[in-house]
Design brief:
This protein is an all-alpha fold. The protein contains five helices and no strands. α2 packs antiparallel against α3, α2 packs antiparallel against α5 and α4 packs antiparallel against α5.
Length: 156
């Protein structure tokens, strides 16, 4: 990498943030996404379409930032895997949450794109049909992401 490219790359990496801090950032981004999803839902129930749109686009941006940070963390060679330290009944609980979270996280990505696509094309009848499934799954993934973080890094 030449010096110009190296300088450009450092513009996008805060010098005071390390890879080890990304899981906490990811939990914050997941929390914000969950709040935005709930807010967007409440707005559409009140027929506040512009506010709904703004909340859902913000949730999408926040989730995209999360995914970027998550991939940077997991593809980084700086840290090894983090093993769950909990014992007893909490172990199967943790792994149930982790497995359902991971499976649904993979599932939700194309669902979000289809849901957004239908809204952007003003196909609101089709948008509503898939959004009824997208919202609860996306919310589950956001909330369980925070729970996995807490169980893996804070509680055990």
């Amino acid at each position: 990498m030449n010096s110009t490219a190296r300088q450009g790359a450092t513009l996008f990496r805060p010098s005071n943030m390390s890879i080890s801090q990304l899981p906490a950032l990811n939990a914050i981004l997941n929390s914000v996404s969950a709040i935005l999803l709930i807010t967007g839902y409440l707005f559409i129930r009140q027929k506040k379409i512009k506010a709904h749109r703004a909340s859902m686009i913000s949730a999408f941006v926040t989730s995209t930032l999360f995914l970027t940070s998550y991939l940077i963390y997991h593809f980084s060679k700086e840290l090894g895997p983090t093993r769950f330290q909990g014992e007893g009944i909490i172990r199967p609980v943790y792994f149930f949450i982790l497995i359902t979270h991971t499976t649904l996280a993979i599932t939700i990505v194309p669902m979000v794109f289809v849901t957004f696509s239908r809204a952007l094309k003003k196909r609101f009848d089709l948008h509503r049909k898939i959004a009824r499934w997208t919202l609860p799954i996306w919310l589950y993934v956001s909330v369980t992401g925070v729970i996995v973080y807490l169980m893996l890094y804070q509680l055990y």
